Automatic annotation (TrEMBL):
<dbReference type="InterPro" id="IPR040170">
    <property type="entry name" value="Cytosol_ACT"/>
</dbReference>
<comment type="similarity">
    <text>Belongs to the acyl coenzyme A hydrolase family.</text>
</comment>
<dbReference type="InterPro" id="IPR006683">
    <property type="entry name" value="Thioestr_dom"/>
</dbReference>
<protein>
    <submittedName>
        <fullName>Acyl-CoA hydrolase</fullName>
    </submittedName>
</protein>
<feature type="domain" description="HotDog ACOT-type">
    <location>
        <begin position="9"/>
        <end position="121"/>
    </location>
</feature>
<dbReference type="GO" id="GO:0052816">
    <property type="term" value="F:long-chain fatty acyl-CoA hydrolase activity"/>
</dbReference>
<dbReference type="InterPro" id="IPR033120">
    <property type="entry name" value="HOTDOG_ACOT"/>
</dbReference>
<dbReference type="InterPro" id="IPR029069">
    <property type="entry name" value="HotDog_dom_sf"/>
</dbReference>
<keyword id="KW-0378">Hydrolase</keyword>
<dbReference type="GO" id="GO:0006637">
    <property type="term" value="P:acyl-CoA metabolic process"/>
</dbReference>
<dbReference type="GO" id="GO:0005829">
    <property type="term" value="C:cytosol"/>
</dbReference>
<dbReference type="Pfam" id="PF03061">
    <property type="entry name" value="4HBT"/>
</dbReference>
<dbReference type="GO" id="GO:0009062">
    <property type="term" value="P:fatty acid catabolic process"/>
</dbReference>
Amino acid sequence: MEEKKVLMKDTKAVKTARVFPQDTNNHGTLFGGKLIAYIDDIASISAQKLCRSPLVTASIDSVDFLRPIKLGDAVTLEAMVTWTGKTSMEVLVKVTSEHLLTGESHMAATSFLTFVALDEQGRPKPVPQVVPETEEEKWLNETGKQRAEFRKKRRIQSKELIEFLQARLDSGRPGIS
Ligand SMILES: CC(C)(COP(=O)(O)OP(=O)(O)OC[C@H]1O[C@@H](n2cnc3c(N)ncnc32)[C@H](O)[C@@H]1OP(=O)(O)O)[C@@H](O)C(=O)NCCC(=O)NCCS
């Protein structure tokens, strides 16, 4: 049976929101946790456009906050599936801010996230392959395998840390001091 494929451009999702006072920290800029919630949300929509099945966030790579996003600015998030494994999907989210009175616009943050598609039993399920077309899409796709390898190594370290902390918890010595 031929493997199902989806064009990268068909996984694009975009969201724009205004930064309101309740979204800001005590510096008057967009609260980092709020931005991460926006990033996870838009990225999951993009991944689901590819797999068309239930999914979970497996990991969020480092979120690089490049510039503060100010109260009253418009924040725009663009997400796209950049690489697919067997059951996992890598999504790139680009965040830009716009000062609505001047029209000045800046790249504010970027992040890669990984989602895993699930079957009815909640087990990882194969996903269609994403197909890049433009030069930028091809570059993002070709470099995806390397990023996935890096995450695999990081996941092993993360599991070791969790096992260590769990053992301390089980022995009645919680905490990391
Ligand atoms: C993500 C999850 C489904 C993976 O299940 P698993 O039984 O460990 O599955 P596997 O080890 O077979 O991994 C399945 C795929 O996920 C990828 N994967 C698993 N953990 C990952 C991680 N932390 N980062 C990136 N990719 C990951 C694997 O590389 C594999 O990809 P591939 O099929 O494309 O090669 C499982 O760990 C889980 O349910 N985690 C909780 C997710 C959750 O609750 N998210 C909400 C936010 S807290």
